[in-house]
Specification:
This protein is an alpha+beta fold and 502 residues long. It has 3 domains: 329 residues, Outer membrane efflux proteins (OEP) (Up-down Bundle); 61 residues, no CATH class; 70 residues, no CATH class. It is 69% helix and 10% strand. The strands form 2 sheets. Strands 2-3-5-6 form a 4-stranded antiparallel beta sheet, with no helix packed on it. Strands 1-4 form a two-stranded parallel ribbon. It is rod-shaped. It comes from Prevotella histicola JCM 15637 = DNF00424. This is Alkaline protease. Belongs to the outer membrane factor (OMF) (TC 1.B.17) family.
């Protein structure tokens, strides 16, 4: 129990230290890819698609099924009807009765004709009666044995068997299903890549937004410090009588405004870092430090020659087609639709199936009706040929082909839109670089303007208002540099995303 407690405490401390450490952009990306729940769902979806593909492969193999059953019936099957059963059961009695009557009539006729005496006829009749009794019994027994032989005894029926089926030709349905499963597996991987791209794009934007706000916070503090220094100088001048109280109030307003601006920016920094923490899967306290938030100037990340990629998605190069996961997904949709057309067509082609089996049953009829288990095996082939379906196959194939054409049009449309997206990001990056160069030029002028204003104020040739205007211009120029640097970073991220290299 103590080991478990220390393990939990140590894990919590480690996780807290991780959350409070310095995070670079690359580390934020790694954390996002490790902890994002949607990515975990996509990975599980990819596993599902992989298992579905494996399941589709089994359709080529023989299928073995076992069957077993027992049935109790209230009545058994009877081959003979009740009249036939009665006749067979009384076979001896009926035969002996008819024979005795006929012989008795013959003896009476002979006695009347004087051929034999009456006494002799009586003696012969008595002898016949003595012989008829065992013959009657024997005949009845023989008839009953026939009845018993025809009894089915099917009130309790047992059966068991093994059935083996092997597809020989299914019209290409199995191959089409396997190809669709392969495409489904590729789609799951491409969907995972798409989510990774979107997550990295979101992390990059959140990271640079937090860096921008943090640097603006530092700038606001510097501006507030400049205003406070000016406030101290003005108060001294008021005490010396060389400045008015109105000048002091103007500076106080600027200081208070700067404090309010700092408070607002700090709230924005906390919210931006909380958003970044949520994307990275760490605690949402925002207590993290970013590697670039204290950097004076952000050097631009070198990019590949995106000019060469500006028409990447309208060419037929396989490598270029696979640059964006969105295009790969749409290409998968086209391929899937084509395989679905083959599958629909296969449903209306002849199907050939090889079957074999082994079974046991009780009662059995292999040697008459026997109340015991007996087995047999069988082998055969089944052919199914669609003959007439009122054109159903034609309409379904036509619909599947139309769906393929729609998917191809959507793919071409996406290629055009991605070309446009790449060109827009390229122009945005170009414009951001121009803004950054202009901002640096303005910053140099603002520095010189602020220096001159401070010197002029000390010399008494410039007013408080002019110094505050110079400070405001300096802050504006510095803010423009921060905005331009972040704009360059975001534009570079947009270019890499458009090129499929994020």
């Amino acid at each position: 129990m103590r080991k478990l407690f220390f393990f939990v405490v140590f894990s919590s401390i480690s996780f807290s230290l991780q959350a409070q450490g310095i995070l670079s952009l690359q580390r934020c990306r790694e954390l996002a890819l490790e902890n994002n729940r949607q990515l975990k769902v996509s990975r599980m979806t990819a596993e599902v698609a992989e298992n579905i593909h494996k399941s589709a492969k089994t359709k080529y193999l023989p299928r073995v099924d076992g069957l077993a059953g027992y049935q109790h019936f209230s009545r058994e099957v009877s081959i003979l009807n009740d009249k036939q059963k009665s006749a067979l059961a009384n076979l001896g009695s009926n035969t002996a009765g008819k024979l005795g009557t006929q012989i008795g009539q013959n003896l009476t006729s002979l006695a009347q004709q004087g051929i034999i005496s009456t006494q002799t006829a009586q003696q012969l009749g008595q002898l016949l009666s003595n012989i008829a009794a065992p013959l009657t019994q024997a005949g009845n027994n023989f008839g009953q044995s026939i009845n018993d032989a025809f009894r089915t005894n099917t009130k309790n029926v047992y059966a068991a068997g093994i059935v083996i089926s092997q597809p020989i030709y299914m019209g290409g349905a199995i191959q089409a299903a396997n190809d669709m499963a392969t495409i489904g597996e590729e789609m799951a991987q491409n969907n995972l890549a798409l989510k990774q791209q979107l997550i990295l794009f979101g992390v990059d934007n959140a990271y640079w937004l937090a860096v921008s706000l943090k640097r603006k916070e530092s700038l606001a503090i510097q501006y507030r410090d400049l205003a406070k220094k000016l406030d101290d100088d003005v108060k001294k001048m008021i005490r010396e009588g060389v400045a008015t109280r109105a000048d002091g109030l103007k500076v106080d307003v600027v200081v208070n405004t700067a404090d309010l601006q700092i408070s607002r920016i700090q709230s924005g920094v906390s919210l931006a870092k909380m958003t970044l923490c949520e994307l990275c899967g760490i605690t949402l306290d925002g207590d993290i430090q970013l590697a670039d938030e204290g950097t004076a100037d952000l050097s631009p990340t070198p990019l590949p020659n995106y000019e060469a990629h500006s028409t990447a998605y309208s060419s037929d190069s396989t490598a270029q087609k696979e640059a964006r996961p969105e295009l790969r997904l749409l290409q998968n949709a086209v391929d899937l639709s084509e395989q679905n057309t083959k599958l629909v067509r296969a449903l209306y082609l002849p199907h050939v199936l090889l079957t074999a089996g082994y079974s046991v049953m009780n009662p059995n009829t292999f040697n008459g009706f026997q109340n015991k288990f007996s087995d047999l095996w069988n082998i055969g082939i089944t052919l199914q040929v669609p003959i007439w379906n009122w054109g159903e196959n034609k309409y379904k194939v036509r619909a599947a082909k139309t769906a393929t054409s729609i998917a191809q049009l959507e793919l071409e449309d996406a290629r055009k839109k991605i070309d446009l997206e790449l060109e827009q990001n390229r122009l945005r990056l170009k414009d951001a670089n121009k803004q950054l160069a202009t901002a640096h030029q303005n910053m140099a002028a603002a520095d010189e303007n602020l220096r001159c204003a401070n010197v002029g104020f000390k010399e008494g040739v410039m007013t408080v208002t002019e110094v505050m205007a110079a400070q405001t211009a300096w802050q504006t120029a510095r803010t423009a540099i921060i905005d331009a640097e972040i704009a360059v970073k975001l534009a570079q991220t947009g270019v890499r995303k458009a090129m499929g290299e994020l």
